[in-house]
Structure formats: C-alpha cells, structure tokens
Amino acid sequence: MSMKPSTILKKLTILAGFLSIAAITAPVQASGSYISCSMDYKLSGWSFVVRHYDGSGNVTCSNGQRAQVKLRSRGVGFTIGKSDLDGTGYFSELKDISEIYGAFVALEGHVGVIRSGHGQVMTRGVVSLVISGTGRGFDIGVTLGGLDVSPLDQ
C-alpha cells in the first residue's frame, strides 16, 4: 500500500507543528515558573442540614512565600455533627501565592465518631486543593459546598 506524496507531506507538516510546539513550550515548563504550596490548617464547627466550619491556616510555598489564611467552609445536604479538624492541604501548581485565595467547590461525604480521618478534593477553575487530616467529635453526612480561603486580616 503506497501513500500519495500529498498525504505524506500533510502528515510531516502536522508532525513538524507538534514538534515545534513542544520545543517552544518545553523551556517554559522547565524554567520553574510554577510553585508548589502546602497549607497546615485547623477547622471547627457543626452541621445539621447545613455545614458551618471556620478556621485558619498557614500556607508555605516552594519559592519562600508565606501567608496566614482564614478558612470558611459551608455546605448543604444530609449532614449532622460537631467536630474539630486538623490537617494539611496541597494546592496544584501555582504561578503565585495569590492564586490560593477564593472559593473552592466540593462534593463531600463524611462519617466519624470521636477520632476520625478526613480527606477532600476541591477545585476553583485551574487551581485544585487536596486536604486530609484527623478530626475529633462526631459527624455523618453528604454535602455539596466548598471552602473559602482569604487573607487572615480580612
């Protein structure tokens, strides 16, 4: 089976285009223009149909930037409980620490009595946040809600 010269030329042009894009973007990705940030946090609150948790956190980034943040978690669903949560969160790659601020959305299922573990994946556009840790208290339910991250002085 033979190919027409025009078909071969089209495939080579497409391949050259992909290689050119890869060559242009590779130095940008390798230049380290993105940073990684983690957050240690504490939340406490209650839920009865509505989830209402408040707390604070300390964010540390790979480029040395730091921030103290205020956390506010709200949700609605089938839920009941009262607990205190301590944990660590990891943000997806960021260009600057200012990208940590805003409302992250999540669908959450939770159950715990006395001491329990918790974990959640949240998103805000291209930025994601994964949190996990331990809790004290009791809770059970499924909620749709999110977490607002703002500067501590607000």
Entry summary:
With 154 residues, this protein is an alpha+beta fold. It has 1 helix and 4 strands.
Explain the overall architecture:
The chain is of the alpha+beta class and 154 residues long. The protein folds into two domains: 1-31; 37-151, Lipocalin. 17% of the residues lie in helices and 64% in strands. The chain contains one helix and four strands. It has one helix at 5-30; strands at 37-61, 66-91, 102-124, 127-151. A four-stranded antiparallel sheet has the order 1-2-4-3, with no helix packed on it. The protein starts with a helix and ends with a strand. Mean pLDDT is 81; it is low at 8-31. Keywords: Signal. This is Secreted protein. Residues 1-30 form the signal peptide.
What's the arrangement of secondary structure elements?
Elements: H1 5-30, E1 37-61, E2 66-91, E3 102-124, E4 127-151
Antiparallel strand pairs: 1-2, 2-4, 3-4
Beta fraction: over 45%
The main pleated sheet reads as: 4 strands, antiparallel
Per the principal axes of the C-alpha atoms, what is the gross shape?
elongated
What count of structural domains?
Answer: 2
Average pLDDT score: 81
Query: How many separate helices?
Result: 1
Signal peptide: 1-30
Keywords: Signal
Protein name: Secreted protein
Keywords:
alpha+beta, Lipocalin, 2 domains, 4-stranded antiparallel β-sheet, 4 strands, elongated, Secreted protein, signal
